Amino acid sequence: MRIHLPTAAEVIALHDRLLVTAGWPVDEPAMPDDGLWRWVQTNHRFNCRLWAEEDLARRTTVCDAQIAANKRAIDSFNQARNDATERVDELLLMALGLVDVASARTDAPVAIAPAGARLNSETAGSIVDRMSIMALKVNAMRAQTLRSDVEADHVEASLGKLARLQQQRADLGDCLEALLADALAGRAYFKVYRQFKMYNDPRFNPALVAELARAGR
Fold it and tell me: Rounded CA gap, 57 and 55, in Å?
């Protein structure tokens, strides 16, 4: 399987472009195939939807039912975000020859570790996920620098924070490229880690198990 390994600049450009795309993130632009960039985009979409719901969940003047709806949406979007992150890792590992292809999408992917390679605790997909969140932070802080309804010290403080956020995002991008370069050279590898988010699964969440038991199911 051949795949173009993503550069930090490409990931950042996609994240920023999507943030100014009409209809985003409710509407997702079509992608030509089921490849890596589709899943980078999907991960970003659900991070964006999570961000919006997290803001709404902090409201203090709405009824409890609306906050409960926000919480359920957060759980759903977080699961989708994690699923997309894992898919990014699967595709990258297959491209790098670091996972047994037949097992890549199972609950127990079999890693193929080159002799002497170090195991990186963070995966490339998780770095891309963190870069997506940084894109949202950069975008939100930039908006603060453009406000005309606040004092000058608020804008000045926001400009300083924006510069630090941009540096953090650039550093993450450097880490992504370094990990992929080391993996390609056989110096490092990472694994697909299944998150097994038990709170979303009625078979494992003890509160949901108890509810089903009380209902006699």
Answer: 5
